[in-house]
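Ticket #4471: structure export looks truncated?
Reporter: QA, pipeline team
Priority: medium

Steps to reproduce: submit the single chain below to the structure queue and open the exported record.
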Amino acid sequence: MQDSRHHVPNPLRPYYVPPSIGADALPNATSNASKPTSSSSGFTFPDLDYSDYIPDGSPSLTGSIKSYIDQAFWKYATVVLGQPFEVAKLILQTRVAQDDELDEIPKKRLQHHDQEEVQLNGFDEYNEEHSSDDEPNYFTSAAPFDRPFSSRSPARGRRGRPSRESASPRIPDRHQKSDGRIHLKNPHSLLDTLSALSSTDGGLAMWRATNSTFVYNILTRTLETFLKGFLAAVFAVAENDILSGSAGGAVPDTSILSSTTPLATILLSTSAAALSALVLAPVDAARTRLILTSSNEGPRTLLGTLQTLPTPYLIPAHLLPITFFTSTLPTLISTSTPIVLKSYLGLDPAMNPASWSLATFLGSAVDLSIKFPLETVLRRAQIATWTSPSYSSPTTSSKRKIITTIVPVPQSYRGVLPTIWSITREEGFSESQKDKTAALMGKAPRRKRKGQGIEGLYRGWRVGFWGLVGVWGTSFVGGLQSNTEAASAEAGVHGGKF
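Actual output as written to the record:
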């Protein structure tokens, strides 16, 4: 006989409704009130269809391997497509401005005049060598026919003319100097840099250090993710919050808005980015050297280049401050941008999609404007590791040698602020737009000012800016499309009701 307690409402639980499933298991319940019932263990549930919630089963080993291979191929293809622009940007950032960069037109005229002078000198030498003193006098009866010998007689061709090698000197390539370095007509042009590089070292020179860049990107993402999870476990922060607040993209991630501890998420994300950048700084420095040296400058492998560091496989001491600032400040700005927009400006990505997209674009532009000067200083500090003899340790100074780069690079590194001051106030010359206009109109002579100004800190900025525009435009169009589809679906639902 079934226990009546399961059919009569319990006065202690007046709103409890006994389940209708598993009624056959009720006789198994005992009448002892002190003994816990186990009626729920005998409930029988009907077959439920979970196909809508779990569409696919567990992936097989072959499917997992294929997925990893596809992701690796896609990331490597991304690196290959963007490597020429990365190479051009790095060359522009590390190149030391020359004092005569503003005198391009007079320099071209001077080069043309020098070439004409060389050609005229060649023909003067030819005329001097073939003067009338070398010719026999056929109208003198007393003099015997004796052709004088001249040691300066040039090699003659088939018709007695001097050969091309002696008549016209060889003019060197306009992109290459005598020391193997490339010459740039415009020190701020990416296309001119790629053209000069490909004309001197071949088309494959634009893809230097592609494998090293791919390895560096993979190691950075892997190590940063690991450090985020480790720090989240140490400081008792939800792992989903710290991992979702990643700042790796050009547009800030809005998933940090759902974090229960946004301040801790920002600090831990910034700390993970700084630690991973410090650990992988030798790899980044080796990548910089492989890009800025010609194919004849060995070694050309990543491991071989790491062994040429003053402290092999470890970050040099002079790279610690600039690497720390380059990794922390942009990450801090990018991660905290969504919090600032929602807390202080009252913007919401769901309620104000257009305003939110525009605000995040401006925030990313601010992030890029701070990141580029720091990255310029970082690249110069990295290449100074091999060009400055002051960074050689006593144990390796006899084995290391000063390398030859494809562009003029700094021979020493004095620090973050001194390098910024040197670029803006001491290196090369600059000319304001007002002076340029006045000089073109003939109202005033050209005025050159010492130093490149702020513009010298933003060489190659178009690479980062156009990348930001592309990512932001894609996300903006995708957001508009999703909002349009949601509005259409809502209109269809209301139309069906009426």
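Status: closed, not a bug. The export was complete when the record was re-opened. Leaving a note from the reviewer for reference: The mean pLDDT is 74.
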